[in-house]
Automatic annotation (TrEMBL):
Coiled coil: none annotated. Residues 1-65 form the NADH:quinone oxidoreductase/Mrp antiporter transmembrane domain. This is NADH:quinone oxidoreductase/Mrp antiporter transmembrane domain-containing protein. It comes from the Eukaryota. It comes from Linum tenue. The chain crosses the membrane at residues 17-36, 48-73, 93-116, 148-170.
Length: 178
């Protein structure tokens, strides 16, 4: 716990910081193991692990939602930014400002380009710290195409339901284990 968190503070690489953070998180789980059966230590440990898993999934969901917001800012349909820009450009066109609307359309395409660069960096960003074994790793052909959607649904469910009803979850875990 102590070592993981103190080393995480000194890291400049996000990947290493999260790795040392995970070491610190394991220390918190060990408290539940040490407490054991008394005072609901196991139940608290299981509840904490559920929240920890939810937060890790939540991190990925935040990246996906941030990417959707960037695409909306770029004005891609069917996102909200598209309809806002469409209305603005239509009003400009009706006011006979075709040159300004053309510039707006052109700069929207430019903005989509650099927003896609940000999204690419978020999703598949390459880091110099990656070893050759990881860099040359081949993904499984059995991987689902809907994994992003499934991850977002699981994340929303896993992070809201336990937060709303924490006491019943602890009681269920205690009743199940003891």
């Amino acid at each position: 716990m102590i070592v993981g968190n103190l080393i995480a503070i000194t890291q400049t690489s996000m990947k290493r910081m999260l790795a040392y953070s995970s070491i610190g998180q394991i220390g918190y789980v060990i408290i539940g193991i040490i407490v054991g059966d008394s005072n609901g230590g196991y139940a608290s440990m299981i509840t904490y692990m559920l929240f920890y898993i939810s937060m890790n999934l939540g991190t990925f969901a935040c990246i996906v939602l941030f990417a959707l917001c960037l695409l909306s800012l770029g004005g891609l349909p069917p996102l909200a930014g598209f309809f806002g820009k469409l209305h603005l450009f239509w009003c400009g066109w009706q006011a006979d400002l075709s040159f300004l609307v053309s510039i707006g359309l052109l700069t929207s395409v430019v903005s989509i380009y650099y927003y896609l660069k940000i999204i690419k960096l978020l999703m598949t960003g390459r880091n110099q710290e990656i070893t050759p074994h990881v860099r040359n790793y081949r993904r499984s052909p059995l991987r689902s195409n809907n994994s992003i959607e499934l991850s977002m649904i699981v994340c929303v469910i896993a992070s809201t339901i336990p937060g709303i009803s924490m006491n019943p979850i602890i009681e269920i875990a205690q009743d199940t284990l003891f």
